[in-house]
């Protein structure tokens, strides 16, 4: 039987993880908390059932945020890895950028677009920008 697990890990390679079920959702988050936590303009996530997620090696540092969420990152190199919050029990979000094949998990929606940085374009805006630049 073919292994369809989703695998990934951190930048330094100390942490490796696996999810054995397919994502419940794939989203690109523009909230200020994700931005600060990852040090990036936006953060793409996949959401999987928590029961299907396991750490295969390495140590995660757990950080409880002021919103009550748990964010984890590699204890050694600091890569942002997961997000859990009590109003979505049984689910865990994994940063799409830490997956081995992020290209397979394109976000299907943008969340917190109202907190988006003005210079970050949403997909429909990107298409418009490309069309505009071609027509000039
Ligand atoms: Zn690491
Ligand atoms: Zn967010």
Short summary:
This protein is α+β, with helices and mostly antiparallel strands and 136 residues long.
**CATH architecture field:** Beta Complex
First and last CA, distance: 53 Å
Average predicted confidence as pLDDT: 94
Segments where pLDDT lies below 50 for 5+ residues? Answer: none
CATH class: Mainly Beta
Q: Tally of extended strands?
A: 10
As for the CATH topology, it is Metal Binding Protein, Guanine Nucleotide Exchange Factor, Chain A
Q: How many strands, which pairing sense, and closed or not: the largest β-sheet? A: 7 strands, mixed
- H-E string: EEEHEEEEEEEH
Shape: globular
Amount of helix: 10-25%
Describe the protein in words:
With 136 residues, the protein is of the alpha+beta class. The chain has one domain (6-135): Metal Binding Protein, Guanine Nucleotide Exchange Factor, Chain A. It has helices at 32-38, 123-135; strands at residues 6-9, 16-19, 25-29, 43-49, 53-57, 60-64, 70-74, 80-84, 91-95, 109-111. The chain has a 7-stranded mixed β-sheet with strand order 6-7-8-9-4-3-10. Strands 1-2-5 form a 3-stranded antiparallel β-sheet, with no helix packed on it. Bound molecules: zinc ion (ZN) (2 copies). One zinc ion binds next to loops.
């Amino acid at each position: 039987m073919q292994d369809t697990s989703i695998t990934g890990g951190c930048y330094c390679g100390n942490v490796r993880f696996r999810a054995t079920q397919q994502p419940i959702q794939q989203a690109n988050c523009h909230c200020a908390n994700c931005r600060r936590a990852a040090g990036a303009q936006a953060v793409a996530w996949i959401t999987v059932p928590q029961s299907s997620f396991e750490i295969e090696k390495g140590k995660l540092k757990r950080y409880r945020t002021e919103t009550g969420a748990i964010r984890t990152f590699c204890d050694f190199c600091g890569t942002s890895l997961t997000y859990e919050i009590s109003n979505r029990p049984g689910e865990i979000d994994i940063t799409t950028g830490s997956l081995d094949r992020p290209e397979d998990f394109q976000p299907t929606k943008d969340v917190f677009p109202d907190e988006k940085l003005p210079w970050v374009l949403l997909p429909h805006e990107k298409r418009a920008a490309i069309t505009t630049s071609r027509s000039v």
